[in-house]
Amino acid sequence: MTEQLIITPSSVDDVVEAIGRAGRDGLGITVVAGGHGLWSHRPDDGMRIELSAMSDIRIDGTTVSVGGGATWGAVAERLGREGLAISSGDTASVGVGGLTLGGGIGWMTRLRGLAADQLIGAQVVTADGEVVETSATQHPDLFWALRGGGGNFGVVTRFDFAAHRLPSIVHAEYTGAVEPAALLRAMRDAMRDAPRELTVTYMDVPPMDPSAPAGASLVAVWAGDDEHRLREALAAVHDVEGVTARITTPAYRDILAEMPPADPDQQSPGFVGGNGLFAQLDDELIDRLVAFRAAHPSSVVFMRSLGGAFGAVPQESTAFPGRDATWFIMAGGFDVPGLLDDAGRDAIAADWAAMQEGSLAEYGNFVSVDEPQRVPGMFTSAAHARLREVKARWDPRNLFRRNHNIV
Ligand SMILES: Cc1cc2nc3c(=O)[nH]c(=O)nc-3n(C[C@H](O)[C@H](O)[C@H](O)COP(=O)(O)OP(=O)(O)OC[C@H]3O[C@@H](n4cnc5c(N)ncnc54)[C@H](O)[C@@H]3O)c2cc1C
To answer: Is 304 in the pocket of ligand 1 (CB under 6 A)?
Structure first.
């Protein structure tokens, strides 16, 4: 039976004190913001720093400063009142901390880039208890590493973002008894030259998954109020046989899914499979994804369009990999007891591994297992080498190791 020291700081000084104590007592630190990451649902030893009391949101023009423990739902709600937004993730309860430090793929990534791309500064309490302001001009090495390198470099007590005007959005759902390959090809062709305002997500899930309608479906978001342009850009999808479209104009805050973090005392189901950032979605990959779903009844396929502003950010200017990717793809099966046997698990893993070979990199924020050998595959080799240098400078004792660890 292990014991964990739980700290809930309400100020930067509290964080400094906690880190000092962890350093003196040799305690491994688990940092928790939204609580959706792998390490936050593991009762463990060491020190757990829960940042939820540090979640204030301040707006100055279009610059938004957010406490390290805030969630994206709260940020979207607050910004929405001012007609502003930051491209974040899709779920309200996901933390600004974990999502931003790992990258952050959301509904406006094609228009504005990752959540990390909108970061213009951050306040960090480092492993030796120093409070450091970072930006493109202040400790730029640390600022570079924070944008994709995860929670390896200290506790971020404040994130500064450049928000953008977003008075309204158009939201479209495409469901029905559709042929998955036909929907995938229409989506792929439509997105090839689509305006940056348009982002789509494809899902194909079995009936037991409560998060989406069973079968192949598509959700599209137009970052703006022009429904006509969304329909025009997705004309090929509207024409797919069997498709039913439902188009609404909600507030951005209202399209963020509600999903509470997992209970730390409950074992979450594992996920066999993985994800990849892919430069191309060619016919062969489409056929393999369709065959994968058909071969494994409990499997899921999830895809998000990239490109646009995401791809316009130079590869070396942040730690995030795969800037040439036009698609993010996640495929696998939930490892619920009784659902998958060893043979099923192995077959899913092998099929996914064959597809993943064609990807540029794996997105660490969606890797929900602690497998250190996968960490180099989450970065370009140049970025991984540079992250190791930054780590050696800012956390040489590896106090912050409960993450996809840079060693
Ligand atoms: C339901 C669900 C939906 C998701 N949707 C998306 C999505 O749409 N887009 C996307 O890109 N990803 C998404 N993800 C993945 C998500 O980005 C990661 O799980 C992320 O790590 C969660 O961040 P968190 O703050 O909620 O989790 P936490 O467990 O609190 O944090 C995760 C890790 O981040 C680090 N960390 C967090 N905050 C700080 C801080 N202030 N200072 C230093 N280190 C910190 C720590 O290392 C911590 O272990 C989703 C995950 C889930 C479970």
So the answer is: no
Cβ(126) to ligand 1 under 6 A? no
Do 238 and 283 sit in the same domain of this protein?
yes
| CATH number for position 17 | 3.30.465.10
231 and 196 in a single domain? The answer is yes
CB-ligand 1 contact for 95 (6 Å cutoff): yes
Tell me how far CA of residue 358 lies from CA of 132, 167, 275, 276, 280, in angstroms: 39, 39, 11, 8, 9
Q: Is 177 in the same domain as 159?
A: no
Q: Is the CB of 149 under 6 A from ligand 1?
A: no
For 200-257, how does the pLDDT look when each residue is reduced to its tens digit (9 = 90+)? 999 999 886 566 678 999 999 999 999 999 999 999 999 999 999 999 999 999 999 9
Whole-prediction pTM: 0.96
Query: Rounded to an integer, what distance in angstroms lies between the CA atom of residue 173 and that of residue 240?
Result: 13
Name residue, tokens 């305690």: 27
